[in-house]
Write a structure and sequence with these properties.
Largest sheet of chain B: 5 strands, mixed
CATH topology of the largest domain in chain A: Rossmann fold
Order of helices and strands of chain B: HEEEHEHEHEEEHHHHEHEHEEEH
Number of domains of chain A: 2
Structural class of chain A: alpha/beta
Order of helices and strands of chain A: EHEHHEHEHHHHEHHEHHHEHEH
Helix content of chain B: 25-40%
Shape of chain A: globular
CATH class of the largest domain in chain B: Alpha Beta
CATH superfamily of the largest domain in chain B: ATPase, nucleotide binding domain
CATH topology of the largest domain in chain B: Nucleotidyltransferase, domain 5
Number of strands of chain B: 13
Number of strands of chain A: 8
CATH architecture of the largest domain in chain B: 2-Layer Sandwich
Shape of chain B: globular
Oligomer: heterodimer
Strand order of the largest sheet of chain B: 3-2-1-4-5
Chain lengths: 367, 339
């Protein structure tokens, strides 16, 4: 048996360590691969969204490289009326692939769900305690990796020499591919953090702060969002990503296992604009996080989502109001596989320029 | 102006390499335009750029250029070829030019060849902007194509529209549907003028609903970009906005003017000597080629610009393996984007 799984940003780092620990044989599709992406595009219905095409491409690569089992996570009632998981399976079947399909239900992702779905993969069986500890380590690693990337954002926009932070992250990604198990991965994260902490920074830098909201796959996946965080950082702006994988884990896993479910802060904040707690996907969090960031003080917000993403389209229409109420500019970027990078960079540059000018004006008035 | 006087003062060069036109402006210390060029890019930005530099060389060969700014979708390429001090996006450049001409301007409508933008300002600072996203229906290229199809020179398109008493309603949401709708209306026997006027209205309607949705358009409103020459579009804007629209004298080279202004600002702020290669540099041979990098799975398409036989710059890679080597030229690019 050989397992494969699709990429979503940097989740593969933790997932890989988990599978190492459980001693499951696996194949990680190449990261940032144009070839897999094109395979996905060629085999998807045209009006499917970018994440779907990217996921399909990764799975095809996995199956082409000897995997016979697919691990996928599907959120019931979320994307395209929840049929993404089934649709992927059907397309791959029609292409002639035969495989075992594990579709984790992310609406109710408990230890029980994980054990039920993963147990058949573990021929020797596994004790509850071991599985519990391995999954907990994976969750911790996801948080640690996200933390590392957001630290890199903080360093990138202040570094004296452009490219230092990028270099540290690139090294990390190269070495993470070879790392085995949790302890190696964690050591690597620590080393990279240390390296980032030693990047010479311009202490006087006061970067504009830009919040990133929108569809979670695009927000957290640098390949599909054309390295949004990196681009903003290299333009001298501090990117604050509200939609990382750890956020998602927090929402779907940690809140599912908690006995008492507290009402989400973002959902509550969104109620000023939308009197419902669910508009599909993560749309409600897009609105809520925009509002929360405006309250906490942010220079500008970028909403990013794949072309045809319904929940985000709904959220977008509300963002106009959020912008008016708070006087914080919100720019929307819609991506599909045909997005021209030049136009994308132009918009980002213009946005950063604008925020910088606004900030300078406020400063010159108050100073 | 006297030749000696020209020799005495300092000048700034602004270049806007757009998809349809390449515009150049030479500006003096007092920020007045000395000369402008508006040329069709025709898919060969290097050729147009070097030819216009040669033209400037013949006319203004001896003047001292203190700063160069580039903008437009070809700004990076142009920046490397001429040696720019500042490389800026179109929004910032257009806003800089309009602000110079009219400090109290509140809204800028800009329609270019491939994209259209709307920029909102308050007290001279950009407060919001929008660019068209996935559609070319509201752009100059579309008008160009329709003018060509109808056999009317684009310069006279506007007059035709103004002659119409009863504009036909054209479906303007999508360029493809608009075209088939126009053909349909022609077959039905609608007059040419009415169809053209209808098209102008459709374009403006589309522009406003795409870019200005839910946004307050306050006056003074300035309209620039090549399409501002089209009186039919201007009339349609005025009718729909219920306000008069100001067309600046240099409406067609506002991007280049803005780039020159930003170059001057940059010069004043830093006092750095320009990296301009000189007009005569245009006689060198420039070549570009693309290489597919096989360094990782991403297979980036790397663009390489060569002057005679030396590599000037490379870009298009994600990891910085190639673009990291652009020592001198890269500084200008980065300063331009990271201010």
């Amino acid at each position: 048996m050989k397992l494969t799984f699709p990429h979503m940003g940097n989740t593969y780092i933790a997932l890989k360590a988990l599978l190492d620990t459980l001693q499951v044989d696996y194949y990680v599709p190449p990261t940032g691969s144009r070839e897999s992406f094109e395979l996905g595009i060629a085999n998807s219905p045209e009006f499917m969204c970018l994440p779907f095409k990217k996921v399909l491409g990764d799975l095809i690569q996995g199956l082409n490289h000897g995997a016979d089992t697919i691990l996928f996570g599907n959120s019931r009632g979320q994307c395209r009326l929840s049929h993404y998981g089934d649709l992927l399976q059907n397309i791959l079947h029609d292409m002639g692939y035969r495989f075992h399909y594990i579709n984790l239900n992310f609406r109710d992702l408990t230890y029980g769900e994980i054990r039920n779905k993963l147990e058949p993969l573990l021929p020797g069986g596994i004790s509850r305690a071991r599985l519990f500890s391995a999954v907990s380590s994976a969750v911790k690693t996801i948080f640690a990796v996200d933390d590392l990337y957001s630290e890199a954002c903080g360093v990138r926009c202040r570094e004296c020499r452009r490219g230092d932070a990028d270099l540290a992250i690139r090294r990390f990604e190269q070495r993470a591919k070879a790392a085995k198990g949790f302890s190696q991965t964690r050591r690597l994260i620590r080393e990279t953090k240390d390296r980032l902490a030693h990047v010479p920074a311009n202490g006087a830098a006061d970067p504009v702060k830009i919040g990133i909201i929108g569809e979670i796959f695009l927000c957290s996946d640098p390949f599909t969002n054309l390295e949004l965080e990196k681009k903003l950082g290299n333009m001298g702006a501090l990117a604050v990503n509200t939609m990382s994988t750890s956020e998602w884990i927090r929402r779907h896993f940690i809140s599912a296992i908690l006995p008492i479910k507290p009402k989400d802060k973002a959902v509550r904040a969104a109620q000023n604009y939308m009197h419902t707690d669910y508009i599909g996907g993560h749309g409600i969090y897009t609105i809520g996080n925009a509002e929360l960031m405006c309250r906490d003080g942010i220079d500008g917000i970028i909403q990013i989502y794949p072309f045809t993403c319904m929940p985000e389209i709904t959220a977008k229409s509300v963002l106009n109001e959020v912008q008016l109420q708070n006087n914080v500019p919100i720019m929307t970027l819609i991506l599909d596989e045909m997005t021209a990078e030049t136009g994308y960079i132009t918009r980002l540059e213009a946005f950063v320029d604008m925020l910088q000018m606004r900030k300078d004006r406020v400063r010159s008035r108050s100073g | 102006m006297q030749k000696e006087e020209r020799m005495m003062s300092e000048y700034f060069l602004g270049i806007d390499v757009g998809s349809v036109s390449t515009d150049l402006v030479i500006m003096d210390e007092k920020e007045k335009i000395l000369s402008k060029l508006y040329l069709r890019t025709r898919g060969d930005p290097i050729y147009v750029l070097t030819e216009s530099m040669k033209k400037f060389q013949q006319e203004f060969g001896g003047i001292s250029i203190a700063g160069v700014g580039t903008t437009g979708s070809g700004r990076q390429l142009a920046g490397v070829i001429v040696g720019a001090d500042i490389v800026k996006n179109e929004i910032t450049a257009h806003a800089a030019a309009s602000r110079k001409i009219m400090p109290e301007v509140r809204t800028i409508l800009e329609i270019g060849g491939q994209d259209s933008k709307i920029i909102f300002l308050k007290d001279g600072v950009v407060t919001d902007f929008a660019m068209n996203t996935v559609c070319a229906a509201g752009t100059g290229s579309f008008l160009d194509r329709q003018a060509e199809r109808l056999g009317i020179p684009i310069e006279r398109f506007g007059e035709y529209a103004l002659r119409s008493k009863n504009p036909t309603r054209i479906a303007g949401r999508c360029a493809v549907f608009a075209e088939s709708d126009m053909i349909h209306k022609q077959q039905m026997g609608y007059g040419e003028e009415d169809i053209i006027a209808g098209l102008c209205e459709a374009l403006v309607r589309n522009y406003l609903s795409n870019l200005a949705k839910c946004k307050e358009i306050d006056g003074p409103i300035m309209f620039q970009g090549g399409v501002a020459a089209n009186v039919g579009i201007v009339a349609a804007f005025e009718r729909m906005l219920g306000e008069s629209v100001i067309i600046p004298q240099y409406y067609d080279v506002m991007g280049a003017y803005g780039a020159a202004l930003l170059a001057r600002q940059n010069y004043q702020r830093t006092g750095k000597q320009t990296s301009f290669h000189g007009f005569s540099h245009a006689y060198h041979t420039f070549r570009t080629r693309s290489i597919e990098c096989k360094g990782c799975e991403n297979h980036c398409e790397v663009i390489e610009v060569r002057e005679n036989d030396t590599v000037m710059a490379r870009w298009g890679d994600r990891c910085g393996k190639w673009s990291g080597q652009n020592a001198a030229s890269a500084t200008a690019v980065k300063e331009g984007t990271a201010s």
